[in-house]
Design a protein that fits this description.
The protein is 83% helix and 0% strand. By secondary structure, the chain is mainly alpha-helical.
Length: 180
């Protein structure tokens, strides 16, 4: 008896999706994309950090496109060639942040938070891109590399390297004071 309401609601939902999907091609594509997204969320329900990272990346890609369109409208250009390339660059950088957080074998922190921070830096770069479209992708690249480096433990390694180089390059003050 408990199974009957689930079957009825499932059939009603499937029928509703079928009717919506058959109304137009764009509705069909939207329904298919939502079903694929729902399946992905269901399959990854136990991987919270990965879901956080994927969600952040999708939102970042959407906002980067929105900010590029706003910049085009503000500049009064209809073609948007440069901002379109910038949006593609932002999508590539968002994917780089997502992959970069999971490539490190021993990540010192939560990987999803690393991707969220990198995506926040990318959104700032996209905001700069509304005013200076040519500077958006290089700024985003430098920001994402910095976030991945510092969150992946590379900041401490870079600091140790710089200190070691400075120690070798600095003159030995103790030896000079003994000679005098």
């Amino acid at each position: 008896m408990k199974l009957l309401p689930r079957v009825v609601l499932g059939l009603a939902g499937a029928y509703t999706l079928f009717i919506l999907a058959s109304s137009s091609a764009s509705s069909f594509i939207t329904i298919c994309a939502l079903l694929a997204l729902g399946l992905l969320v269901f399959l990854l329900r136990r991987r919270g950090q990965l879901l956080l990272a994927l969600g952040s990346t999708v939102v970042t890609a959407a906002f980067a496109g929105y900010l590029a369109a706003v910049g085009d409208i503000a500049r009064g250009t209809a073609s948007g060639l440069l901002s379109g390339q910038a949006v593609f660059g932002h999508w590539a950088l968002a994917g780089m942040a997502l992959l970069g957080a999971w490539i490190v074998k021993e990540h010192p922190g939560r990987r999803g938070i690393t991707v969220v921070l990198a995506d926040a830096v990318l959104l700032v770069a996209a905001g700069v891109g509304t005013v200076l479209p040519a500077a958006a992708v290089p700024l985003g690249f430098v920001g994402i590399v910095a976030v991945l480096m510092f969150r992946g433990g590379g900041g401490a390694a870079a600091g140790r390297f710089v200190r070691r180089v400075l120690r070798r390059a600095a003159p030995d003050t103790e030896a000079k004071s003994k000679r005098a």
